[in-house]
Task: inverse folding
């Protein structure tokens, strides 16, 4: 298990990482997510031993302060793979095992095993200068995994690739990490990548870890508005928990996962009701802050009325900005979605229905 205990990294007296603490259990993938400049790479480099830091980095309780990079047993993959250009694919992958003193026949077997794992069987003799960007990143991953690191550190491993390749390689990477069962820290600024690959998330902002936890828990219950907005929430408004449901100006939704649901329960068994009825007699409403992602508000036949002020086509839906100030004065405009087939234009009157899937409870 990796333990990062109050790590601080300072450049020219300005802390780039402040008092950061996190843990990664064996076999788990943790995504370190945060905006550009939030300190993600700096923290990864401190864990690797590439950056002087205060605080402690421990593996299974052993303090690694003073342990040089190559003796930590960690594998590293950066954005641009950084393969050895003068070695072929096999030469790159066999490098770590050779340094560990593995005999040639075993090395050859290990190289073949890893090429199979990353889907590049038969690539042994290819010069790395002739690989595509995606192939090069696969080789970089195979090279990092070859010495069987106890921790894999991935710093934006897919961000140099185009969108389509990125998406397919992210799915491949999930398979590779699951099969290799390697404990992994993944640095990314891309939420989708974090969601595809990680078991847990840590959100870094201005050098501090704002929140960490199970991916879905953090997604549904961001710790504050800043984290919520970073995780795709575009509308924040007041709400109330009544029974198992959250109610806000756009309607109500089942949120059985919300801690405030348990807190507001009067103890009476409350089955998950069907309709958005008002609270049962005796139930008390607990005030909460509701966060809505664009897909929480869908253009529909019924719902809160508003006027479309902007529209942008996306790959699989249409994103609309809707002025709802006449009906929901606390939020003047909201981001919402329409299907591709709905011909929605600026100036159109639409209605917005609440989709529970895009609802978060903030704080
Ligand atoms: N070697 C350095 N010397 C001085 N300042 C640095 C150095 N490396 C990083 N910084 C500063 O530390 C802060 C955190 O940088 P870092 O690269 O860790 O952020 P990041 O979250 O990884 O960003 P990005 O997603 O853009 O890569 C930034 O303000 C950056 O300018």
Result:
């Amino acid at each position: 298990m990796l333990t990062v205990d109050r790590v601080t990294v300072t450049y020219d007296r300005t802390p780039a990482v402040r008092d950061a603490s996190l843990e990664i259990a064996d076999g788990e993938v943790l995504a370190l997510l945060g905006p550009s400049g939030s300190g993600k790479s700096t923290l990864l480099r401190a864990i690797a031993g590439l950056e002087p830091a205060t605080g402690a980095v421990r593996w299974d309780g052993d303090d690694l302060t003073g342990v040089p990079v190559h003796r930590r047993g960690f594998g590293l993959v950066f954005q641009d793979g950084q393969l050895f250009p003068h070695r072929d694919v096999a030469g790159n992958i066999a490098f770590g095992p050779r340094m560990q003193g593995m005999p040639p026949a075993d090395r050859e077997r290990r190289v073949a095993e890893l090429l199979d794992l990353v889907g590049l069987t038969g690539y042994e003799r290819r010069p790395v200068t002739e690989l595509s960007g995606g192939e090069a990143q696969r080789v970089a991953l195979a090279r990092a995994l070859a010495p069987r690191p106890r921790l894999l550190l991935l710093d934006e491993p897919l961000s140099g690739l185009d969108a389509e390749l990125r998406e397919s390689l992210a799915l491949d990477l999930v398979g590779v990490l699951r099969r290799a069962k390697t404990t992994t820290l993944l640095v990314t600024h891309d939420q989708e990548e974090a969601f595809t690959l990680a078991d847990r998330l840590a959100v870094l902002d201005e050098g501090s870890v704002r929140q960490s936890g199970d991916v879905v828990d953090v997604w549904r219950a961001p710790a504050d508005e800043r984290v919520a907005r970073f995780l795709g929430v575009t509308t924040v408004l007041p709400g109330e928990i009544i029974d198992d449901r959250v109610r806000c100006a756009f309607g109500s939704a089942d949120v059985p996962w919300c801690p405030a649901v348990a807190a507001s329960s009067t103890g009476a068994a409350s089955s998950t009701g069907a309709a958005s009825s008002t609270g049962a007699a005796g139930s008390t409403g607990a005030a909460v802050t509701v966060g809505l992602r664009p897909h929480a508000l869908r253009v529909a036949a019924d719902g809160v009325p508003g006027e479309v002020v902007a529209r942008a086509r996306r790959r699989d839906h249409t994103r609309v900005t809707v002025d709802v100030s006449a009906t929901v004065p606390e939020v003047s405009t909201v981001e919402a979605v329409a299907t591709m087939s709905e011909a929605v234009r600026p100036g159109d009157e639409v209605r917005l229905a609440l989709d529970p899937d895009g609802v978060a409870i903030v704080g």
About this structure: Residues 266-283 have pLDDT under 50 and may be disordered.
